[in-house]
Amino acid sequence: MQADIFVKKKRNSFLFLAVLAAVTFLAIIITEYDVVKGFTSLPNAIGWALANFYPTQESLAKLPDILDKMIETVLVSLAATTVAAVFAILFAILGSNTTRVNALFGSICRGVATVFRNIDVAAWAMILLFSFGQSTLTGYFALFFGSFGFLTRAFVESIDEVSGNSVEALRATGASYFSIISQSVLPSSTPQMISWILFMIETNIRSATLIGLLTGSGIGFTFNLYYKSLSYDVASLVVVVIIIVILGIEMISNYVRRVIL
Amino acid sequence: MEVNEQISAQRQLLKTRPHNRMKVKPLTKSAFVTRITLFSLAVLTIYAFFTFDYKDIDFVDAVLLTIANLKAMFFEPHLKHFTFSHAFYQVFVTLGLAFLTTLFGAVIAVFLGLFAAENLSSKWISTMIKGFVAFIRAVPTVLWVLIFAVAAGLGSVAAVIGMTFHSVSYLIKAYSESFEELDKGVIEALQASGASFWQIVFQAVIPSSITYMISWTFLRFEINFAVAVAMGAAAGAGGIGFDMFMASGFYLDIREIGAITYFILAVAILLEVFATKVKRKLKVNA
Amino acid sequence: MTALLQVNNLTKQFGHDAKALSDVGFSVQEGEFVSIIGPSGAGKSTLLRCINRMVDATSGEIMFDGVNVLNLKKKELKKVRTKIGMIFQHYNLVNRLTVIENTLHGKLGCKSTLSGVLGLYNREEKEQAMHILGLLGLDDFIYKRADQLSGGQKQRVGISRALIQNPRMLLCDEPIASLDPNSAKVIMDYLKNISVNMGITVLVNLHQVDVALKYSDKIIGINGGQVVFIGAPKHMTRADIQRIYGSEAEDLIFDAGGIHAG
């Protein structure tokens, strides 16, 4: 009886730590992770970066090219997101439990979105590389598929969250399906949806860098070019440009969110 | 039918009071910004399509080819260059990378999260950490990995450390927000009895937010699995992602990509189902 | 007999012109039950928090057990705080932990950082916690989670957490303002009991005049950050109440039985 809860708690935390240690150990072995190198590489990397990884005067000459590719990347990400959003709205309305037409169709819509979401954009890029080659469209469609899956799920949640009661209220007045969607569901979930779209654009610019590396396009390709040729000064300039662009877009999105939410 | 009635009723209204239309929706600042945002997105999207580098690709052909490829991928998957057991093992390698990344990220984020939470730290330190988080997030994960690869060489060390950065930034935000939900009074009560900062952290702050922390950490693990697949492909981190990269770029075997995609999908969906369960259970207990 | 607590010329200023307390002075004897009453925003809460330095006073002197609290360094301040228990309007318990764990939190101040962090309590401390919970009629709730308790029960856990500190004095900030009349009476009876039987000094902020009149050895009335009345309940007149509460007074006198929040 004497404070058995403390014994139990101690046993639980001990068990938790033991399992955690075991899994960590397994993970270290299976991934061939070198623990010592893990600790030493951090100061090494910082030292290296301070010595080599900063833009120089000469690298600035490449700035126009870099900006060109950056703008291309931003536009690809943005276009992929907006078009994906249009499709996602359709699928979300059909997939949401509050606005679906029927249960079977709703499950199918959500299922399609789940498949698209769970195949990473990098995987999409490698699949699309077969048919679209090293063109902008490979990246565009990879981002499109990934965004479509993600936005559908996010939009379903927004619709469920916002419009449960108001849909019921409008149904009670005898409003038709389409007028409920256009007068209640869409207006009330628009702010959330815009917020998700802006989030997706930010995410896609980061993903576009990765896809560019894999498919040879956009800013990712530019980085890889200079990185592989050991021109670390230009590569660092690319990183600086990416940082500035992403922080800038984040600032705009935060402003928009603050006003509309 | 009803729509028609509405429209005709509206027309009636417009007819009788042509110059005095009542505005149902006044143009507020938020409505204005919403419209500007949507309009800019639309214009930029159209502009984007004009500037794309299409490289003389026949769009219709490419789409048809994609559909054929997807069909081959999903309906005729096979493993030729890898064995089933090899692919199965590589899935665990990827899971291992994701696990180590999540673990390191979580440990670092707990400490930084405490100093980022405004109720536990000073405004100044909190702002500084949040700035640091924004900076980390601005650099794509793949670049973190590649930058570390210069010092540590391509492989699991560079991949895990590189991926840890975004995990840290994500979890700092998640943890510090759940820390901030703790009532200020509880902290005050323990301070009043003479408890020290770390005692308050471990006896009040963490016990109060542990369920949220677990669910956010698991969510991040789910994300890290996808990231680890991508890093395997793009930064030579190994695991199933690297196999996919080889099947795509080296063996050019779309059916093998299909088989690998099924492996990835199975794990990802399993993790998602599990995450939903965890979240639901936590909600009941919270 | 020397006073356990002696407050002299205490002033607290927020920002430039807002004076929360000005020139407050009073003394409290060992074992005394003292109520501080006044309208909302009169500075009761600030006054109480100045005593254990949860709020730093602008100027003045607070002598507790022979030392000036305002001059203490961080470490000495912690030591003084372990001798002063505090009880809050909203109980301020960690909801997800059990009653006994919340009670044992009162011991953190006199434990090493590490054993406090790990939550290692020895047998003696656990027995003391159970003993105190027994005194407050919480035997059946020892292993219940704090969020499963009613308001009155939560406040009793709050009192247990303060008592396990073995305090010389309890500071109670509106302890019954969030409770229904029955629970409020139970809590006040416990506090009175603690002061009479354990000899612990109790300093309590109250909103209700009738409760203060019934339980206190001494009443301090403040209004606008200034002390406007000090004396025994029997010396308190209608005019005094008028002075303490200003325009609110009429309601209070005719509605003396009611319990108002906040």
Description:
- The complex is a heterotrimer of chains A (about 260), B (about 290) and C (about 260).
- Helix content of chain A is about 85%, strand content about 0%.
- Chain A is mainly α and about 260 residues long.
- In chain A, helix 5 crosses helix 6.
- Chain B is mainly α.
- Chain B has one domain: MetI-like fold.
- The two termini of chain B are about 50 Å apart.
- Mean pLDDT of chain B is about 85; it is low at about 1-20.
- Helices cover about 35% and strands about 25% of the residues of chain C.
- Chain C contains ten helices and ten strands.
- Chain C starts with a strand and ends in an 8-residue tail after the last helix.
- With about 260 residues, chain C is α/β, with parallel strands linked by helices.
- At the A-B interface, helix 1, helix 2, helix 3, helix 4 and helix 5 of A face helix 1, helix 2, helix 3, helix 4 and helix 5 of B.
| CATH H-level superfamily of the largest domain in chain C | P-loop containing nucleotide triphosphate hydrolases
Quaternary structure of the protein? heterotrimer
* Number of strand elements of chain A: 0
- CATH architecture grouping of the largest domain in chain A: Orthogonal Bundle
How would you sum up the major sheet of chain C?
6 strands, mixed
Helical residues, percent of chain A: over 70%
* Mean pLDDT, all residues of chain A: 87
Q: Strand share of the residues of chain C?
A: 15-25%
User: What structural class do the secondary elements of chain C suggest?
Assistant: alpha/beta
Order of H and E elements of chain C:
EEEHEEHEHHHHEHEHEEHH
Spatial sequence of strands, sheet with the most strands of chain C: 6-7-8-3-9-10
Largest β-sheet summary of chain A:
none
The poorly predicted ranges of chain A are none
Which class best fits the helix and strand makeup of chain A?
mainly alpha
